[in-house]
Structures are given as structure tokens and as C-alpha cells.
Amino acid sequence: MRILFLASEVAPFSKTGGLGDVAKALPAALARSGHEVRVVTPLYASVKGNLTPTGRTLRLRFPYGVERAGLLVARAAPGHEVWFIDHPGYYRRPGLYTTDWDEHRRFGFFSVAALQAAQLMGFAPDVIHLNDWQCGLAAVALRGRFAATALGAARSVFTIHNLAYQGNFPKSVMADLGLPWSLFHAGGLEFYDTVNFMKAGITGADALTTVSPSYAREIQTPEFGCMLENVLRARADRLTGILNGIDDEEWDPALDPFLPARYDAFDFAGKAVCKAALRRRFGFPEPDLVSPRPLFTAVSRLTAQKGVDLVLAAVPWMLSRADFEVVLLGSGEEHYERGLRALAARFPGRVAVHIGFDNALSHQVEAAGDFFLMPSKYEPCGLNQMYSLRYGTVPIVRATGGLDDSVRDAALPDGDGFKFEHFQPDALAWAMGRALEVWRSEDRLDALRRRGMALDFSWRVSAQRYEQLYASLLE
């Protein structure tokens, strides 16, 4: 198959979250299976790498004027290229996403320019895969200005990575972008008298996916549907949940170059070395060899979604009742950063916090922990729980979205982690208490670790599901 893949970020060139990882790994896995894949993304100011100009110029007319952009290419692997839309006025800004007045133009242009790029490069796709609200208007364009072209014959897939971010704009953008007013209705782009780019993708694509089976069910409910649950229920027969994969070459404790020692499911000696090294780095006291402390870790964006409030409430309560240590790595909202610093100051030698992102340290934290805290309020997919399972660091998660799909509770014969239901501090504390009970039995702990490390969360599995979906659309 020939697959055109549109994404507003693609690792390692650009990334703010899981979308960037998906846009790197899924096309690569599809290309390894023999498909021809072209990924299209903006050329941001932060993009580095050897890019080759194609000599093509994109030219698009909007009611507000004519926009032009260059087109560059990076050849990732046989059958796998990444194309970059070079519009300095739109994409050479401090961040990938902004609150600037013309955000609708930035990604309205990208959606249409990516399709024109395929035309100019002579690439006639069988499937066009769109991702999140930044690509939503491409679904509209495929049924409009590109309907009579080779691209109009392609089948379209729209993936929702996080429904909470929808691309809502005043209805004046209809005229600004030249969108037909006939689309401004409850079954089209209209969303409470605004224009919703996410809704454009949901209502316009041939098939819908999201990044875990549980999240696909959850977003059809008022609790998680972000006011689009009725729209999604109306298209439930087109909606599929496919769990994201992880890069199992980058995240492999037996080969990880960031670790002070490697290990696998047959020998945990290297994991103990990693734990000792992380404790030294953060100045923890020398361990009691007779009764060592368990180590709880977390790597997270510091936002309400990630359950930081639960951590700030449950951890001090538990520390007053049990002997353990905590290492937290992350950055985000300022009040959460202050809260974590205060927690570390309150419990010196037992809690350590690193504010900021450090890729090497994130690997070391994953490897060093005995247990990993991930108490998300909602989690479309999540990756750190999969990294933790692969690294033998037993995850403690709230049973939501991809966390519920990827972690099996320790009470089950095939369990590999701890789950709790209610988004409350005492529920997280209860799960941590269960983990501390297992800590007292090395055999039980090692069994949980080995079961988690045996799981296959590679993109090979996820890519096969997407291949099946694409093939069903083409039949």
C-alpha cells in the first residue's frame, strides 16, 4: 500500500508528546512491512537534520491571500520519507503550537499543503492517515477541492490522540479559510457556534481510530467525551481503539546505553546497580542492607491529567506510615513544580525531585525504580507504563484508557502491576500499600517483574492492526 501520513510533529525532528513518537514509529514499522510511506509535517525552527530541498513550491490561495511554501525531504529508510512544509512565517516560532491569532491559518494551511505536496511529488496514496485536530481540515479538503484528483480516491483514517485538545476557533475562520458555510452545522464543523477542527476530522474521515481500546469506549461517554461524545457515538461503527506501541530498541534494559548496568528478566543484578546509582545521584543515605527501602519513581508531565494532585496528597500520607523512597522527574505547570519541590524539602533523604526533561535520566529512573507511579485522571494510551513493564519496574496505575489495557492487576494469575479505580488520594495510597506488601516477598516481586518484561508492546503488533484497518477500507 501507499500511505500518506500527516502529523503536526514527528520525532526526532519535533515532539511535544506521544504524537511525535507515533509519527516516527508507526510509519517506520509500516515501511519495514513493505509499504510505501510518506510522512508530512511542518518545518519548525527547532528541526535539525540533513534535509534535501525538492525544488517544488507549494502555492495555495485563500480568501486572505496566496500562501507559498517550500518542500524538503529526509529519507528515513527504504520506502519511508519525511516531507517538511517550509513556511517560515507560520512555523519558525518559539513553540510548535501557539496561542497566536493565526493558529487556524497555520494548521489549515498545513492540512491542505500536505495534500498538495503529494500531488507535486507524484505520490498517489491508497490511504491518507490524519492525526489530531491539526490535520482535521485535510478530511474536509479531501471531500472538497481534492475530490476530483487522485487523492480523492484514497481512503482516509483520522486518529484521535487526545480528545481534550480540539482546535476550537471563532466561526469567522470559515470565511477566512474559504470553508463553505454549508459545512457549518451540527453534523459538520459547527461546535456550539464555533469551528472545531477535531470535529472536522471525526465527521469527515472514512475511519476513526484512537490510541487504546478503553479510550475508544471512554470518549463516547460524557466523562471523557469533551462534549463530542454524541458525535463519536454516531460514528461508533467507524471507531477502533489500537494500543500504541513503544520503540523496543530504544527502550531495552539489556542494551540501553544510558544505564550504568544492563539487565534482563533472567538476571536482575544490573537493575540493583541502576537503583544504587540513582540513589547516589540524588544524595540518598547509604542503604540498610538488612532492610533496604523500596523505591517509587515517576516520569511525567506535571499537569492535572497526570494525577499530580494525587501524588502530592498520597505520598506524604504514606511516608508517615511506611519506609520507602521516591524519585520524581518532570516539568509542567508551575504550581505542581512548586508542590513537588516542597515535598522533597519536607522529606529530605527520602524524596528527590528533578524539574525538567532529561532523556538519559528518564531511562535511568525507569530502570532504577521498584515501582512506577502513573495515577492519571485519564490516559488515552500512555507509554511510561509500557517502559516500566519492559524495565521490570512494576507500574501502579489508575484503571483508565491505555493504562487499563496494558497493565494487569497483581491479584490476577498473570498480573504484572497494581491498578486502582477511583481518582482519589486514598485509592492511590491503597495501591501503594499493596505494592509495599509485595515488596516483602522477593519471589512475588520478581514474578511480577518477569511477567511484565515478557510482554510485547512493540510497534510490530500495533502496525499489524493498522494494516488490517487500511486493508478493510480498500476492500
- Major sheet characteristics: 9 strands, mixed
Distance between the termini: 12 Å
| Average pLDDT, all residues | 96
Overall outline? elongated
Specify the CATH class of the largest domain.
Answer: Alpha Beta
The strand order across the widest sheet is 3-4-5-2-1-6-7-11-12
If you compute it from the alpha carbons, what radius of gyration comes out, rounded to the nearest whole angstrom?
Answer: 23 Å
Fourth CATH level, the homologous superfamily of the largest domain? Glycogen Phosphorylase B
How many domain units?
2
β-strand number: 18
Helix residue percentage: 25-40%
How many helices in DSSP terms?
17
Tell me the CATH topology of the largest domain: Rossmann fold
Give the name of the CATH architecture of the largest domain: 3-Layer(aba) Sandwich
- Structure class: alpha/beta
Unreliable stretches (pLDDT < 50, length at least 5) are: none
What portion of residues belong to β-strands? 15-25%
Explain what you see.
Helix 9 crosses helix 12, helix 10 (308-319) runs parallel beside helix 11 and helix 10 (308-319) packs across helix 15. This protein folds into two domains: 2-245 and 460-474, Glycogen Phosphorylase B (Rossmann fold, 3-Layer(aba) Sandwich), CATH 3.40.50; 269-456, Rossmann fold (3-Layer(aba) Sandwich). The longest helix has 18 residues, at 103-120. It has helices at 18-32, 88-91, 103-120, 136-143, 173-177, 197-204, 213-218, 229-234, 269-281, 308-319, 334-346, 359-368, 384-390, 401-406, 425-439, 442-453, 459-474; strands at residues 2-6, 36-42, 52-62, 65-77, 80-86, 127-131, 155-160, 168-170, 190-191, 194-196, 207-210, 239-241, 295-302, 325-332, 351-355, 371-374, 394-398, 418-420. The chain is built from 17 helices and 18 strands. The protein is 37% helix and 21% strand. It has 475 residues and is of the alpha/beta class. The strands form three sheets. Strands 3-4-5-2-1-6-7-11-12 form a nine-stranded mixed β-sheet, with helices on both faces. A six-stranded parallel β-sheet has the order 15-14-13-16-17-18, sandwiched between helices. Helix 4 (136-143) links the parallel strand 6 and strand 7 (155-160).
